[in-house]
Amino acid sequence: MKLRSGILTLAFIGFSLSLSAQTTEISFLELGLNQNKSGNYADALRNFTLEIEKTAANPNPIAFYNRGFAKYNLKDFQGAILDFNKALELKTNYFEAFIARGQSYSKQDNHPLAIQDYNEAIRLNPLEGTAYFSRGLSKNKLENFRAAITDFNKSLELVPDYAPTLAARADSKAKLGDFAGSIEDYNKAIEITPKRTNYLSGRAFAKMKTADFKGALADFSEVIKLNPDRAEEWYYSGFCKAQLENYRGENGEKGALEDFNKALELDPEMIEAMYGRGFVKSKLGDPRGAMEDFTRAIEFGNNENAKILYTAKLGKIQLDELRNGLIDRTKMSDMSASRAEVFFHRGLAKIKSGDPKSAIDDYNRAISLQPTYADAYFQRGIAKSNLGDQRNAIQDCNNAIDLNGKYAEAYFIRGIIKLALNDSSGCLDLSKSGELGYTAAYTVIRDFCN
């Protein structure tokens, strides 16, 4: 038994022999498994979809499970859950699918549901270390730290010296105030994987709690060497230096002031760094500069809630870019006797010239001449969305999808419009779009659905 981090490894065991016998035809399942193994998840997803379509009369739970795996790694957690649901419907004792679905729920911060799945996986296979590890992570998120440690202990009993479990237990111990125990676990995890920045940062925070600012500074310095673009580490490096009264660097070494400056260079809105720099300036005899930084920290802090409320799930500029980027993808079609295509393409030209209102007139004419013209509904929806009529734009996408159930771009547009309207079901549309081959959907899922 081997512990697997993140999500379970591919379901090869037990199926490779049957696959090897398929020599006369392309095995989409085998192609997908190999692509999943190599990290080519978008192509893997397409092949699993083809396998699912090919075996629709006799569905294979392995295909659904591994397509869920691909979606998970493309950050499409809702879509992954749907595939794991189907895999479990077909194979009720599929403990790997329970774990994978639980991990997908965890990524959505739905830890109670995740724990239910991990419980079922453990019932089916009590020697699977991944289930205990994953359940411990969810318990840790729910602040049930002692129960989390119990699960991590069991996982380490089954798979000793697994660095992610050691680091997770270290975090739970720190939350309970056991900083010495936390540092001990981080030491072991770092010995196994020396360059993991989150392990080094975790140990540094535990050292800070024991007032070992010199030791914490050494860890933060190592993190900065490995990743110099993280404002938080620069801030805490400055914090440790301030505790050690190293306010200004000497002999080419940076002091707290330089670290706070760097943190603000990377994140100009970091209130903690404004405060820290103000503190250092006051220590260095610059009261005017200190007052400016303290005032900025206070004023910016008062605006934080307004900023959060103002930021939509998907803003207008992003909606415009994603929506209008699809206009050029439309291909030329043969002209029918009704000449609906002429009106359609004139509408496209009007859209590109910045006249969506007039374009809608042409799309209307095309649809009246050819009522099953899915592309015309779709592009009319884009034009309506450009004019701010998002509800009717969604209806046009609905019409396009009703006429062409595999219209990936229509699912995509409907999905991003829903997100702009704060309707999270848009993520399911994006998942379907990606499943149908429009891989740009996974970038939006990654940025706006998790």
From TrEMBL:
* PANTHER family per UniProt: TETRATRICOPEPTIDE REPEAT PROTEIN 6 (PTHR44858), UDP-N-ACETYLGLUCOSAMINE--PEPTIDE N-ACETYLGLUCOSAMINYLTRANSFERASE SPINDLY-RELATED (PTHR44858:SF1)
Top-level division of the source organism's lineage: Bacteria
Which lineage ranks, top first, belong to the organism behind this chain? Answer: Bacteria, Pseudomonadati, Bacteroidota, Cytophagia, Cytophagales
Outline the TPR repeats, range by range: 61-94, 95-128, 129-162, 163-196, 197-230, 340-373
Instruction: Kindly state which keywords UniProt assigns to this record, in alphabetical order.
Output: Repeat, Signal, TPR repeat
Instruction: Provide the protein name.
Output: Tetratricopeptide repeat protein
Q: What span is annotated as the signal peptide, if there is one?
A: 1-21
**InterPro entries per the record?**
TPR-like_helical_dom_sf, TPR_rpt, Ycf3
